[in-house]
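Convert to structure. Protein one:
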Amino acid sequence: MPDIFFILSKVLWNVFRIENVIIISIFLALLNSTNSYRYVALIWLKNLVMLLLVILPIFPVGQWLIYPLETRFSKPINMDSVDGIIVLAGGVNRKQSVFHKDMQFNDQAERDIKFLELGLAYPAARLIYVGGSSSLKKSVSEIENEISFMASFFDSMGLNSARINFEAKSRNTYEGAVFAKASTENVDGENWYVITSAYHMARSVGSFCSQGWQVIPFPVDFRVDELKLVNFNIIANLEVLSSAAREWTGLMVYWLTGRIGEIVPSNCDA
């Protein structure tokens, strides 16, 4: 069942991601049909496509959707006691790193940078780097190379990679929490901080709560600085909308399948 869930989640998302839906809708809208029912349906579809083409270049719908997720948690102010730090990896471009034989970061690199910063600031803290692969074509060599690259990167920046527990089996956020908990002992009553993108934090906290692990959120990689009524940038609007749609879909699916206790988790007590 877990494998079916994983495969379906990847296949369906690739089909129904915002960019693909728009392209498919435009293609269908250009078709003609003599069937009256199909004709009416195509007319409605054409109107929908025209509406999207008007709305998306102007209105930052993605920002409106992602803002409540990014503001769900605040960065911790008082970090006097830090027993452990977890980062949900995602800041490395695996394929480019393997091709160029050197570390290549992507737009989520702030996760790894903050992990490095806090790891250096709290030398007694236990560290977990949750890696793995979310690809259907899971490449063991790419994962091993990522771990090797990251270990070298952390060592070069002064953070001893021997301190880090590299978890490489997980394929999604939920499995990351499961495997991280399985590899760690005696976390009850300890202060463990989890680092991930702000819009992804709710699903992450909910996944750890499902394992009975009350983690402390440390959100990074914010996508929205301020809410705007209009934003004449269709590329930027589509990018944020894609992230927002993916995250809201993930939250809904996780909630419906019992992986999290709320549609938008806040903490383990809710």
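Protein two, convert as well:
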Amino acid sequence: MSFLEKPVKELLTKDVVSISPEASVLDAMKLMTQKRVTSVLICQNGIINGIITSKDLPRIYKSSELFLDSPVINVMTRRVDKCNEDATVLDALDMMINGGYRHIPVVDARNNLVGVLSETDIFNSMGIYDPSRRRLVEDVMSRNLPRVNVNLPLSEVVELFNNSPIDCLVIQSDGQAVGIVTERDLSNLLSSDLASDTPVKDFMSQPTFTISVKSDIQEAGHEMHKHSVHHLIAVDDNNNIKGIISRDSFLLDFTRFLIRQLVKVTKQNVS
């Protein structure tokens, strides 16, 4: 059985990170940082009321100077799509891709929350898929990579995440990558005492991990697992930045591959 045919309940994370509706945004961000996750479910009596993810934090940060003290019920996303535990991983992946989700709550037949399926859960279950395709990093990487200088202040970093469909920023000096800030860093940054004019060089993550654009994507997957990272900066032979490959890149590429295979089979059946 392909991992795509497995029921979601075999892959999901059962240790659900949740918080009550009355808790503050600061409480939610501290919990995200502590648990090293990028989403928190807002639950009461086992019922899902909403969700806050790292994607939401820049919007919440910009909405009010008192955002840290705001109850999460006032700022959470109220519509939460859910997946049944007996659905296949392929069904869940389809929901995540179409909805732009990195996590999806999983419920049983009685609509009780039993876990969460994340992009990382699927990535870790994929293994080395179809090596004969010989896909290279340059085939799947994103070339739309926001790069900023080391002196960009925190307020402008948040602005970029708020106004652009990005999940990371590469910090460069003299054309070389010297650090990175990702969505996963936002809960820690915004719950800290950093001043809004703090330069990104003072809080960026280091070191950065790079990979050649000519490497195959299986090697990229191994490197992500090895360093426990979600992004690798793709460089050419002269170490010039050419793009970025993320765990999301694998899922998107794999989904496109499945669609092409389905179209191929459909055409064969028609003919």
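Residues 247-270 form the longest helix (24 residues). The chain has two domains: 3-123, 131-251.
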